[in-house]
Amino acid sequence: MIGILEDRERRYEETLKLIDLNLGTVLCAKINYPGKNKNTECAKMAFSVLRQEIYKEFDGKIKVEKKLSGYDGDSLLLIIDLPIIEVKKRSIKIETEHPLGRIFDVDIYNRDGVPLSRGDFNIQERKCIVCGSAARECIVKKRHSLGEVLERVNKMIKEYGDRYDK
Fold first, then answer.
1. Are 24 and 81 in contact (CB under 8 A)?
2. Is the entire prediction scored with pTM above 0.85?
3. For the purposes of burial, counting CB atoms within 10 Å of the CB of 14, is it exposed (0-12), middle (13-18) or buried (19 or more)?
4. What residue ranges do the domains of the chain occupy?
5. Spatial CB neighbours of 163, under 8 Å, sequence gap ≥ 6
6. Is CATH 3.30.70.1150 what the domain over 2-122 is classified as, yes or no?
7. N or C: which end of the chain has fewer CB within 10 A?
8. Could you read off the pLDDT tens digit of each residue along the chain, which spans 166 residues?
């Protein structure tokens, strides 16, 4: 667990460095993958799909790119040559419309290093992948076991791979 926390801190430090460059909007993309092992075959596959979607959405607008890997899984840090609001709206579109969007985590950071929230755009908070209730509520109340959540996430990724990865 220490490794995961250290990797999250390292990712945030790298994010702040990109913000300090003042070259555009900073985006951080990763997978919301449950459990301690964030580097499973399923997690890697989902990250690859997320990366492709990000490149497709921001084609020609990516100025700086940095990929990080570690205990916390893979993440992609980008500077995008578009206004922050447009980047956030496009990111929300990926998270809400893509078949794997429920496990995509795309954060857009303001100049102070604070990620913009879905609430800033009057977008409903994420739903639980298992039961459809508010995800935050299920996490806080520990409504579902890790095994239950992992099973659902892995099933979603495998079904996506079976359907689209041909």
1. yes
2. yes
3. middle
4. 2-122
5. 99
6. yes
7. C
8. 678 889 889 999 999 999 999 999 999 999 999 999 999 999 999 999 999 999 999 999 999 999 999 999 999 999 999 999 999 999 999 999 999 999 999 999 999 999 998 888 888 888 899 999 998 899 999 999 999 999 999 999 999 999 886 5
